[in-house]
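Students often ask why inverse folding is considered easier than folding. One informal answer: many sequences map to the same fold, so there is more than one right answer. In these notes we will look at a single instance of the problem. The structure comes first.
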């Protein structure tokens, strides 16, 4: 039976690659996005993957949209919490809104999507949740107290929820990408990016597909014994 998967932020960047990898693996994929209608329309026409627009930081919107998807498509077996934003700045320059927006979307989105879907997975005895963290949640990063805190929180959230799902056939894992060649990284100033790449042992940025292959494995039947783990896919940048 084909599994039904939701990928948040699934219409571009790493999320696009994840949506395509899960589709290739046989899942019926729904890609969520926040506001870029033109990109979502182009993605949907090119891939045949349905898109739904809502803000993952909005608790009620997650509950309502997941209920709508369950009614229109079927029960949700797989959730990939990929949607994420940055609002970088040193602590001195970071506003409360910069802090709150990042916590609300990057960490709050994981809670909201789990509230909307985890119970159904437990009832049906099978489920996969994969949360996209970051190397900067593991190691910290200058000018990112908001982003590093939210991503670090994802790793704790993952281990805690994995314990609730472990005996119920529901696995919960995280992937911590290093620097991946997407719009998010394109926003980093070139001289800063050069210094970052110089510190990556494999000597290049990662490709979105390299993260997507890890997600596809964690969502597969074969990964039933993997739960509460964080897979670091970062070109050897941060080894521990
Ligand atoms: P991206 O290119 O900026 O794409 C972000 C995606 O998230 C877009 O589809 C966007 O929708 C969606 N999104 C943003 N806010 C949302 C919200 N409130 N509700 C629903 N969807 C929302 O980002 P990316 O580089 O692919 O990153 C994807 C994930 O990997 C993020 O969680 C990021 O933190 C993480 N990550 C990235 C890197 C990297 O090097 N790129 C490294 C480590 C971790 P719209 O298209 O509508 O804007």
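Output (designed amino acids):
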């Amino acid at each position: 039976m084909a599994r039904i998967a939701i990928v948040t932020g699934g219409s571009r960047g790493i999320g696009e690659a994840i949506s395509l990898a899960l589709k290739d693996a046989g899942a019926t994929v729904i890609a969520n996005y926040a506001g870029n209608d033109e990109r979502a329309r182009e993605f949907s026409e090119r891939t045949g993957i349905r898109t739904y627009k809502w803000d993952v930081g909005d608790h009620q919107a997650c509950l309502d949209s997941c209920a709508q998807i369950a009614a229109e498509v079927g029960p949700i077996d797989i959730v990939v919490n990929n949607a994420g934003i940055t609002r970088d700045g040193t602590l001195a320059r970071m506003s409360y809104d910069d802090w709150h927006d990042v916590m609300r979307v990057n960490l709050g989105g994981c809670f909201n999507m789990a509230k909307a879907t985890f119970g159904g997975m437990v009832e049906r005895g099978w489920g996969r949740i994969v949360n996209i963290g970051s190397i900067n949640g593991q190691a910290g990063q200058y000018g990112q107290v908001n982003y590093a805190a939210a991503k670090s929180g994802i790793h704790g959230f993952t281990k805690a929820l994995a314990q609730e799902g472990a005996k119920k056939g529901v696995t919960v894992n995280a992937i911590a990408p290093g620097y991946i060649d997407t719009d998010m990284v394109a926003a980093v100033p070139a001289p800063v990016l050069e210094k970052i790449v110089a510190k990556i042992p494999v000597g290049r940025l990662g490709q979105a597909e390299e993260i997507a292959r890890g997600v596809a494995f964690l969502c597969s039947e074969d990964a039933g014994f993997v739960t509460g783990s964080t897979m670091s896919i970062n070109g050897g940048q941060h080894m521990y």
